[in-house]
Amino acid sequence: MAGAGGGGCPAGGNDLQWCFSQVKGAVDEDVAEADVISTVEFSHSGDLLATGDKGGRVVIFQREQENKSRPHSRGEYNVYSTFQSHEPEFDYLKSLEIEEKINKIRWLPQQGAARFLLSTNDKTIKLWKISERDKRAEGYNLKDEDGRLRDPLRITALRVPILKPMDLMVEASPRRIFANAHTYHINSISVNSDHETYLSADDLRINLWHLEITDRSFNIVDIKPANMEELTEVITAAEFHPHQCNVLVYSSSKGTIRLCDMRSSALCDRHSKFFEEPEDPSSRSFFSEIISSVSDVKFSHSGRYMMTRDYLSVKVWDLNMESRPVETHQVHEYLRSKLCSLYENDCIFDKFECCWNGSDSAIMTGSYNNFFRMFDRTTWRDVTLEASRENSKPRASLKPRRVCAGGKRKKDEVSVDSLDFSKKILHTAWHPVENIIAVAATNNLYIFQDKAN
Amino acid sequence: MECALDAQSLISISLRKIHSSRTQRGGIKLHKNLLVSYVLRNARQLYLSERYAELYRRQQQQQQQQPPHHQHQHLAYAAPGMPASAADFGPLQLGGGGDAEAREPVARHQLHQLHQLHQLHLQQQLHQHQHPAPRGCAAAAAGAPAGGAGALSELPGCLPGCAALQPPHGAPHRGQPLEPLQPGPAPLPPPAPAALCQRDPRASAACSAPSAPPGAAPQATTAASPPASPAPASSPGFYRGAYPAPSDFGVHCSSQTTVLDLDTHVVTTVENGYLHQDCCASAHCPCCGQGAPGPGLASAAGCKRKYYPGQEEEDNDDEDAGDLGAEPPGGVPFAPCKRARFEDFCPDSSPDASNISNLISIFGSGFSGLVSRQPDSSEQPPPLNGQLCAKQALASLGAWTRAIVAF
Question: Which residues cross the membrane (chain A) (predicted)?
């Protein structure tokens, strides 16, 4: 069922009213390429929010504890840690430069005080440990306070070092580096529900790793044809099922999704389920293949549904029905007549992501002009909101936006021709429990909360 | 923001994208280039169908000047499964000085083959409506039994990978010596039997490769795009072809160009110079190297050529009859399953279907030749370069994938 193009009702059920909370990032008009945010991910508890950028850096924000003395802070996200995850590399064998852009970040479930996340660029996945240090040992015997070694002949007494508090220091250290397993560009990583393994997917292959083992991985999906000239589709996204550790899905550039069960065979080239919606012949165009390519696939938290994003729509699939999606929501159908121009300026190749809310009752995805769309699955209402500096007053409510596809433009409507296609929201994330969303608009990270929060 | 690109501009844009992706940071992006190749294929199909329709239009004009009994020929052509004939056609005289009349029957033969392909295309469209998603392999397979290169069918759903999955294209040529691919005009190869003269050496090479499945993508498409040398003979032959086209192409005046708005699918006919003019503007255009018969295209009035309808009937070849006869008029023997691998669709066609496989060679070199030459031609004005690239790209589709995949 198609959603309306920008209704006036807020989405998320219970008449949520989204308000501006914070914005991170520089205000400059000239955006450095390296500062463009390329991935956003909440941790499993939602208290940490990680972003990766094109410069290979990871910035982690932590939510402040609710402070009675500062009621207005309302759980703000502040910088917790920043580190350089990946550096540009050069593959000498193929004379290829490997971009340092962080393609995906995935948090590991928390086990202990330290936090772990996986970050990946096109070729290498790294496991990072983020740990806090707020104590320091003092009174060493063999070295003095500066760290210089003491002259052993001068040591006449023995003492026990004591721990003294220090300013909180957050350290990020690479604990594992999973390299040299992918010939093509990695587009997805997904941690398994067993908390021991994870998958990494590139254009043609999916590998299974153990978090402790870096010198080998197991290839479970390989769609590379014997003759590359026969190539017709590539893998665009992959994810493990949230509860069943043997189930994974991967989407293709042809708009199909395959569900694989690792119990059935070691090599999952043969799918267990095949999800495809028949193409509507009347909407056939020169760009049909491009706009049907799935850019993101996400399981619902329940594990019963999955959501796919293609260029113009998001579709919700029931895992028990392969023939067609149970829901189809139009994100920006008004672009269908502009596909030619979007092809010329390369926007048609933009890969939008999508996300579920904690209860799976709403879904969100980005669009152009710094617009993003929310669809409420229970009330069938949808809304278009904008991430902009103009609407950045603290706790200011976001006003629903409308795009005028043609004809007479009403007041407050934005016409399609005036959309800014350089301002695209590709990456969004929804807090796993609460109604807090993080929206990446080029080099800025916007955080919105619902008023009731 | 509406853009009414014609197929040629789209092809130019796509080629520019592919070319620039080779220098982009991070290496060639397989996914993006694959999608661009789909657009290229779609645009090429439109481009070819436009020319086809234009020829039909010209043929219509010619036939209006002919005695009425020639109308009979249209019926003969319209019958699906009508075998193409090659037996009475002498060896194709390649080269500029060839006899126009000697080339005519060959040209007509080629266009007859194109018509067969189109008949199958119509059948395929019928079939497509019954089976919602028979894209790609299925569609190309429809063309296979008739030997038509899938890339040259007007079926928009053909996938590049499946475009050339017909084993018979390669079958009779496994023994042929490999000829180096020669971009641009090249010395003409010696005349070969009509059925085989238009073979693309690259197709032979590809077919001979033991590891390559017979239906590999570039083979049939390159089969339809011989090296530059035969192109001069074949393209004028194509243009001059008196060939009845299905009426659904509509009416296209030879002095007009049909432009398809790719976004809204509005077809407009634009008063324009001859389609062929922009081709002749290119210094490398092999067509312009042609002798007298060639310029018949360049003139807006359309060409005058002799027409031997009687000969057409006699020329029906039994070999092809056997092959095409196997094709039931109403149905296409393939599984229109989108996800099936194309190997499943390689039909058991007779090797003689390769006669029909080599349809139109418009321009000589494929993409690999194009790309190698591109640095030199980059100094040319962009429109010309784009046109040059576009024209050469029309020749071969499968080579694009080869060039894209640098791994």
Answer: none
What is the CA angle A68-A73-A79, rounded to 5? 120
Residue A112 lies in a domain: yes
- Tell which residue, A104, A85, A124, has the closest CA to residue A41: A104
Per-residue pLDDT of chain A (453 residues; tens, 9 = 90+): 443 443 344 444 446 789 999 999 988 888 899 999 999 999 999 999 999 999 999 999 999 987 766 666 568 999 999 999 999 999 888 888 999 999 999 999 999 999 999 999 999 999 999 999 999 999 889 888 888 888 888 888 899 999 999 999 999 999 999 999 999 999 999 999 999 999 999 999 999 999 999 999 999 999 999 998 899 999 999 999 999 999 999 999 999 999 999 999 889 889 999 999 998 888 888 899 999 999 999 999 999 999 999 999 999 999 999 999 999 999 999 999 999 999 999 999 999 999 999 999 999 999 999 999 999 999 999 999 999 988 788 888 999 999 988 777 788 889 999 999 999 999 999 999 999 999 999 999 999 999 875
When scoring A343, A344, A368 by the number of chain B Cβ atoms within 10 A, the one with the most, hence best to mutate, is A343
CB pairs under 8 A between A and B: 140
In a domain, A4, yes or no: no
Each as own residue / partner, the long-range contacts of residues B20-28 (CB below 8 Å, 24 or more positions apart, any chain) are B21/B404, B22/B406, B25/A97, B25/A99, B26/A96, B26/A97, B26/A98, B26/A99, B26/A101, B26/A122, B26/A185, B27/A91, B27/A94, B27/A96, B27/A97, B27/A98, B27/A122, B27/A185, B27/B406, B28/B404, B28/B405, B28/B406, B28/B407
Q: What is the dihedral of CA A304, A308, A314, A319, to 10 degrees?
A: -30
* Residues 93-112, chain A, touching B (beta carbon < 8 A): 94, 96-99, 101
CA distance B403 to B34: 11
Q: Which two tokens mark B80?
A: 């699906």
Window 200-219 of B, Cβ < 8 Å to A? 211-213, 215-218
CATH of the domain at A102: 2.130.10.10
Q: What is the pTM of this model?
A: 0.64
Coil/strand/helix, residue B171: helix
Please name the helix (run of DSSP H) or strand (run of DSSP E) that holds residue A199, with its range, or none: strand A197-201
Q: In 10 A of CB B212, how many CB atoms?
A: 19
- Whether residues A285 and B263 touch (CB distance < 8 A) is answered with yes
- What distance in Å separates the CA atoms of residue A414 and residue A397, rounded to the nearest whole number? 19
Chain A residues whose beta carbon lies within 8 Å of the beta carbon of residue B136: 232
**Cβ <8 Å between B263 and A339:** yes
Residue in this structure with the two tokens 């530059």, named with its chain if needed: B228
Taking CA atoms, B307 is separated from B68, B107, B276, B355, in Å, by 13, 11, 22, 22
Structure tokens at B354: 């390769």
Give the DSSP H or E segment for A226.
Answer: none
User: Closest Cα to residue B341, out of A266, A206, A226, A293?
Assistant: A226
- CA angle (A355, A357, A363) in 5-degree steps: 50
Residues A328 and A363: beta-carbon distance below 8 Å: no
Of A300, A291, A331, A330, the C-alpha closest to A318 is A300
**What's the total number of domains in chain A?**
1
Distance CA B274, CA B299 (A): 7
In chain A, positions 226-265, which contact chain B (CB-CB < 8 Å)? 226-234, 236, 253-254, 256
- ipTM value: 0.90
Please identify which residue in the block is written with the tokens 């040259």.
B152
Chain A contact for B301 (CB, 8 A cutoff)? no
Q: Which domain holds residue A52?
A: 18-151+160-450
Residue A49: inside a domain: yes
Q: Report which secondary-structure segment, H or E, holds B166.
A: none
